[in-house]
Structures are given as C-alpha cells and as structure tokens.
Amino acid sequence: MVTLLTGKKGSGKTKKLIDMVNAALEKSNGNVVVIEKGKQMTFNIPYSARLVDSDAYDVKGQEALLGFLSGICAGNYDVTDIFVDSTLKITGTGAEACSYLVPELKKLSASADTNFVLSISAANEDVPEAVSDCVLK
User: Fold this and answer.
1) What is the chain's Cα-based Rg?
2) Cβ atoms within 10 A of the Cβ of 65, count?
3) Which residue in 7, 73, 77, 89 has the fewest CB atoms around it within 10 Å?
4) pTM, rounded to two decimals
5) Is 79 within 8 Å of 31 (Cβ atoms)?
C-alpha cells in the first residue's frame, strides 16, 4: 500500500508522520524504517524504528529514491513499513514526481509486502489526479 501524506509547509505533516510511525511500530512484527532529509527527527522517532538520513547516502532524484527504497526492501525481507519525510526535497521536484513514484512503489509494495508513506509538501489539488486515490484523507 502507498499512502501520500499531503499538505503545505507547516501544516503538521511531520507530526502526523511521527504518529503514524508510532502506530506502525505497535502493530509491526518486522522493521519500520523512516527516511528523512537531514537529521531533524532524531529525537522524535523511537529507537525501535530505523532512522535513515538520505543525505548520508547522497540520494537525489526520483530514480535514486526508488532505487534506495528498493535496496532497503531487498536487503531486509522483514521491513513492514517505510516512511519518507520531505519526499519532494529528496527528489528535487514538485508534486508531479508522484506520477512516477506511486505506480513504481505500488509494484514494490506488492512484491516486498511493505507499506509506504510519503510526506508530500503540496496541497491535495496539486497532487496528480492519477495518484489522488493514495492521498490520506
């Protein structure tokens, strides 16, 4: 499953993402991974989740992010949930990046049995219509 957590800057997406991470940790029988750009969430994410700074691995662009997420799934078969904060800062693009990422992540989600949550700094109406079914209501 792929979920898009949308909203303009300052709308509380990161707080909601942290709440979703905590809920996933409570129900997961595997590993929960949180990808962030920079090290802003170090003290907000419980130690039981794996916190990864995308800058430490020089992840830039849509293809690089997809490859990075695929590598995480390939390297550890029991990752149940992956959360990506500041997705558009990592990809360096606008909300149109969702048109590429979401279909690819849906395939990866099905094959790896992993849930993905992407934090997108954009209003719901700015998200491409083709992926609007993934927007968290």
Assistant:
1) 14
2) 24
3) 77
4) 0.91
5) yes
